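User: Okay, second chain of the day. Same drill as before: sequence in, structure tokens out.
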Amino acid sequence: MIGLIDTEGDCAKWTFPADPGAVRAARTAVRGRLAAWNLDGLADIAALLVSELVTNALRHATGPIGVRLVRPEAVDGVLLVEVSDPLPDPPRERVAALEDESGRGLQLVAHAARRWGTRPGVTGKTVWFELSVPG
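Assistant: Same drill. Structure tokens below.
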């Protein structure tokens, strides 16, 4: 892990190097922050979806991978999760065949998240998703 960049209030950001250890480090960081925010009930699904998106970033991009968690003040009951990488091309959701070993990550995000999408950045892109926070 390159390091925790910001943990101000309801936002936490990390940057990870583009190496295989980034997936485990991102999962651990997300679980730890959600536990600190008393959102343990979201830890499993958030860690799984972050793992999928970080894995996609490792497969298709080089350079650092950013992960950000936000509990927006303006939207109650939502956790926003973002994964950024330096590749500008947006990911493409596809239907994986039964024998395919990959290609299900974005489908998993689409089915498990409340909403998801992508947006271009100054360099690269961000893939984001929202999870509903239990009330």
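DSSP finds three helices and six strands in the chain.

User: Thanks, on to the next one.
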